[in-house]
Amino acid sequence: MNSIFSFDNPVWNFIGKLVDMLLLTVVWAVCSLPVITIGASTSALYYVMLKLAEDKEGSIFQSFFRAFKENFKQSTICWLIMLLIGLVLGGDFYICYQMRESAAAKTMLIVFVILAFVYLMVLTYLFPVLARCEADCKKIFFLSFMMSVKQFGWTLLMLAITASVLALGIFVQWLFLFISVGLIAYLHAMILKNIFISYGLGLPDTEDGAYEIPY
Questions:
Q1: Lowest mean pLDDT among 11-25, 42-56, 61-75, 163-177
Q2: Cα separation, 7 vs 67, whole angstroms
Q3: Quick one: DSSP state of residue 3?
Q4: Least enclosed by CB within 10 Å: which of 49, 86, 103, 155?
């Protein structure tokens, strides 16, 4: 009977992680409201989720807000760069779609679809890498792109996870959206923790530690 109510019980452990996902999704949403802070809040979210995935839990709120503060400048710069690129890609895609009867426009549509896919690949790794590494934006983008290509199979799986979770929330049960961001980040973290270890980027022993990219 005691084992049922033990915090080490797998059922309670699972419920605890669901609660963490709910709370972190709410905190992430609140901290992302100004839009410009989405980068900092997302990198902070991944910082906490990588710790949860590696069973090195602590205070999720303390960890989140510390990472948010410490990574704010770098994450915001990288996010604004990605936002600008996304807006340009979206605008060009829209223009080509409106001119889709043209053969040249059809060709450009294919090009923009490929570029958009590469964009999503890099975006999938960008904030987890920001959460784990200390480096300038150029190195962060380089490592994110390199990982997304070298780990292409895992990248496809993470993109599929993102699409599936969002589809469940939008088309099946909207209440699912309340844990969607936290769930996506946690499932990504379960994959990324092993990828990061293979790059020598396992979780630092110190609470506030981070790695410098070794190239």
A1: 11-25
A2: 27
A3: T
A4: 103
What one-character DSSP code corresponds to residue 9?
S
Do 185 and 49 contact (CB within 8 A), yes or no?
yes
User: Residue for token digits 């980040």?
Assistant: 185
Of 12, 16, 1, which is closest to residue 182 (Cα–Cα)? 16
> 27, exposed or middle or buried, with CB in 10 Å at 0-12, 13-18, 19+?
buried
Tell me if residue 209 falls in helix, strand or coil: coil
Spatial distance between the Cα atoms of 67 and 74, rounded to a whole number of angstroms: 11
Residue 124: both structure tokens together: 């999938």
CA separation, residue 152 to residues 16, 93, 141 (Å): 32, 24, 16
CA–CA separation, 1 and 14 (whole Å):
18
- pLDDT tens per residue across span 14-62: 777 888 899 999 999 999 998 999 999 999 999 999 998 887 766 889 9
Mean pLDDT rounded to a whole number for the chain = 86
Q: Which of 78, 110, 65 is nearest to 92 (CA)?
A: 110
75-120 residue pLDDT tens: 999 999 999 999 999 998 888 888 877 888 788 888 999 999 999 9
Tell me the residue length of the chain.
Answer: 215
In Å, what is the CA distance from 195 to each residue of 44, 55, 65, 82, 174?
Answer: 19, 16, 25, 23, 32
Supply the pTM of this predicted model: 0.86
* Torsion of the alpha carbons at 106, 109, 113 and 115, rounded to the nearest 10: 120
Neighbours of 34 (CB within 10 A): 9
